[in-house]
Every structure is written in C-alpha cells, then in structure tokens.
Queue: 2 jobs
Job 1
Amino acid sequence: MKKLILCLLTATLALAASQLIKLRADEPSTFQTVEFATIRWDGRENTYLIRPNAKVDKFKQVFEKAPPRPDGIDDRAYYLNIAMNAMAKEGFDFAGMTQDQIVMKRAVTRQ
C-alpha cells in the first residue's frame, strides 16, 4: 500500500512539475502590441493618412477647419503639425519621420 501511495504521489509531483515547466517555457505572446499609421505630405490639397487597417484618409477637410496659416510660416510644417495633432487625438504617438512622411504609433488593446 505504501508503494502505491508513494507511486501516486511521485506521479502527481512529476505531473505538476511538468506543467510548471511547460508554463514557463511558453514563447512570449506574438500578439501585435503596436500599430502604425503614416502621414504622407503631398501638399495641402493631397496630404493623406494610411491607417493601420490600410484605409486611406485625406486631411483636406481637417486642414480646411484649421485657422489660416500665418504669413511667413512654412506650409509643410504648419499642416503636418495639424495632421499630427489630429492623430494624437486618436491615441497615436510620434514614431519617426522622413522628408515627406511621419509615422505615428499606438498601443493595441487586447480584446
């Protein structure tokens, strides 16, 4: 009887240990944690946003609602600033830029 109990106890401990090792050995989650959007400058009339879902939106209407650009201020800098602030309202943060593109990112919430 002692051998049976000892055998069951050993099997139970071995099973528990294997489950614990298995949990720790799992790969880290590969779930996407960040998504990116790109603002592409192509003049005031044609600047657009490529959203993470590949939908493209133009900023023309956003720019039309903005205050007029002050004299002596660069078009590109003024309107890209407005575009970045519009994206920040949606939870995006600056991630990087090139001459004519600004990349914005935001954390993806798990559902």
Note: Strands lie at 34-40, 48-50, 56-58, 93-97, 101-107.
Job 2
Amino acid sequence: MLELLYTSTKTVTLQSTFHLVYLRSWDALLLFSSGKLDKVFRDGTQINLGAAISGTSISMGNLVEGRHLWGTLPPDPTVIYGADEITGQPHYIDVLNPAWDPGANFRAGDYLDEVTGLLLHSKAAGVIEIFRLADGVKLGEIQDPGGPYYDNLAYAGQGKVAAFHHATGKLALVDYINRTVIFRSKVAPCVRSAYDCRHDLVVTIQSDQKVRVYLTAALPSILSAPAFNPAPAQVNRLAGYAVRTRLTGDMGEPCAGYLVNWSLAAPAKGVLEKAGSVTDADGYAENFYFGQSLGEETIQAGVTV
C-alpha cells in the first residue's frame, strides 16, 4: 500500500456523478460535478469556476503533461475535444479525433496521447486497449492478469499512465509504449482519483469527501528471510558468502531506501561484514557472511519503519 502523506480537514461537495482530473498548469484539481466546474486544492478548498457546461453526455479524460480533455458519450457521436487550461472549459474547435468516432471505445477517465497519436481505453478487467487516433486501428492491448477494470488512466510521465480502480484502491503504473505493467500497489478505496505529475503524488477523494495525498512509495510490510545468493556449493572459511533479504509492501511492491539491520543468533560461529545495509531500487539489501558453519548459523535481519 502507498504511504499516506496528507488528509484534508475540509470536505469537497460532490454530486452523485462527477469527474476529476489533475491539471499541472494549476497544480490543483478540476472537478466536473452536476454540470459545473470547480477548482479543488489539496486541503479541500473548493472554488466554483462558473456556469454549467451544456450537454449531459459529456465527460472528462486525461491528456499528456497533466492536461485534460472533454468527450461526448453515446448515444451522441463521440467527439473528443481539447480544453482551456485556464478556465477548464472545452475547446469545441479543437477536435482531437476528426477522422474517427471511437463510440463505445471511449469512456470517462480514458487517456489520449496526441503527441504519439494514441488513445488508451479501459476495456475490461485487466485489459487496456490501444487505438491509433488517426483512423481507429487497434494497435494492441496492455494485459494485466488478475487486474481490475480500471476507472481512470492518468498521465504519470512520458509514455506512462497511472491506472486506478476506485472500489478497491488498486493502482498500477503502466508503460504504454512497451505495453508492460511496471508497478502495482493500492491506496484506500476512493470515489475518484488523479495523478499529480508535477510532484509524483497520487490524489484521491474518498467517500468521506476528504482529499488524500499519497507518496508513490509503498509502506514496508514484508521482509523476507535472509538467504544466500547464490547458495554456496561448498564451504570456504576464507571466502565471503553473499546473503540478502527483500523488503516489500503488502502487494509485493519493492521498498527502496530502508536500512536493514543484520545480526547472527547466538552462539555465533562466523561474522557479518556489515551491521546494516540499505535496500536498493528492487527492495533488496545485501551483506556478506564469513564462516564455515553455514548450516548451523542463523542470520537475522530486521527493519525499523
């Protein structure tokens, strides 16, 4: 699970149907609720931006660099518009899909990369489809076996989106250029989500209507038992034997930058090179054991969070 950084003290007024995006130019959230637009800050401050947008079948999605789009939904023809980054309103003359009507292949929370000409559509549980924007040709899918039906695909860096499932709080970092899932984790279940691409933060609004901000780093949950790597074929008391452990979150996410403390259970028959070592980007911490009684030695590792 990702580490919770902040919970707002103010609550955000929400209607039964609403959409949320993070805008880099504002460094704040844009809320579309019951036909009106509000700017929402991380502390829950909510400022109305004006009159309702005409049309009940219009919804928001995400563009590259922390921008947003507007799209009409069936039964109307699906037209995807760019948006004004100051007012948040649709640019009705800026049609992003002039040659193709995605129809059911577009929904609220989908993602469009107009730089590479790709539309990402959350199709089903564990499936994100990729379409060529110019003509609607399906280029392939991103498969996330066992993954949920993601509600929101938000820009998280060049060629990457953060995919959110609100009911469970599950999220994934997806490389849509290489069509791979880089990272999986979760937050508390929420009703809407956004990704702060300026500061690499996850932002949610939960059912209590409070804004929550999460670091994109998992809370440590599991420290594996120390193991020799590789397992020595024979004992040589003059050689050091690499031993390592791995620190992960509750969904197997690597936890980097944590200090692991090492020790030998008494009576010790050998020595360890270091009393502590720091986990790397994959969550591994390594040490070296010197001794000749590997089968009789108990190596211990622990971490303080």
Note: The chain has two domains: 2-217, 222-303.
